[in-house]
Design brief:
Elements: H1 3-31, H2 36-49, E1 53-63, E2 68-70, E3 73-75, E4 80-89, H3 90-104, H4 109-126, E5 128-130, E6 134-136, H5 141-153, H6 158-175, E7 189-192, H7 195-211
Parallel strand pairs: 4-7
Antiparallel strand pairs: 1-4, 2-3, 5-6
Helix pairs in contact: 1-2, 1-7, 2-3, 3-6, 3-7, 4-5, 4-6, 5-6, 5-7, 6-7
Length: 212
């Protein structure tokens, strides 16, 4: 194969992966009751919304710097006041939650609640506060747990149960239950459903539905 074709394929590979991901997302959302056009629209809206954060809270807190000792002097730094903005990510929180509410109309309640509790517990256990970044969470774990719980608890409605429990469980376990730790992240802005959580939320819609 000529070298130019190999170079062309290397350049084309990211585009092919993106197209494959769109097709997988379309198929998975179709299993949740959407038409192919609406699936692509929801996929695109989530991607665009991932860069949009809506501020919902501004908090000021006092930061006490540690004293430093350089013999024979003691250096003292006065407390500083910092402001932290808490926002909600459109693509990683608002859109998935609204779609979950839509799915709840035709999804069994008890299996959904139990599956959500399971995903919440797993997300809370695995979520790690990362100073300067936010809450980090392994992206593939919530979708896998959500899909497994949905299949076991509601085989006939596994796809919507997996999606709802994956979305709500990840947001509650990773972000909402870690709200008290936000002030320790030393970050000016914290996004619920953003940063390290968006990957998990977004993949829930694809992986959970495919596995279910």
């Amino acid at each position: 194969m000529p070298l130019i074709w190999i170079f062309f394929l290397i350049l084309l590979f990211p585009f092919l992966i993106f197209v494959f991901f769109i097709q997988a997302a379309t198929f998975s959302f179709a299993k949740l009751g959407l038409s192919p056009q609406m699936a692509v629209f929801l996929f695109s809206l989530s991607l665009i919304g991932s860069v949009i954060n809506i501020p919902i809270s501004r908090k000021k807190f006092i930061v006490h710097d540690e004293e430093e000792i350089f013999f024979p002097f003691l250096f003292y730094y006065p407390p500083r006041v910092r402001e932290q903005i808490i926002a909600v990510n459109v693509g990683g929180a608002i859109i998935p939650v609204l779609f979950s509410i839509y799915l709840m109309q035709r999804t069994p309640l008890i299996p959904t609640i139990i599956a959500t509790i399971i995903v919440t517990a797993v997300a809370k256990a695995l979520a790690k506060p990362v100073p300067g970044v936010g809450i980090s969470l392994p992206a593939f774990i919530p979708p896998l747990v959500a899909a497994a719980a949905a299949i076991l608890l509601s085989h006939n409605n596994a796809a919507p149960v997996a999606y709802i429990s994956g979305v709500l469980g990840t947001l509650i376990g990773a972000d909402l239950l870690n709200l008290p730790h936000f002030k320790d992240l030393n970050s000016h802005a914290i996004s619920i459903g953003g940063a390290g959580i968006f990957d998990g939320i977004f993949l829930v819609g694809v992986v959970a539905a495919l596995l279910a």
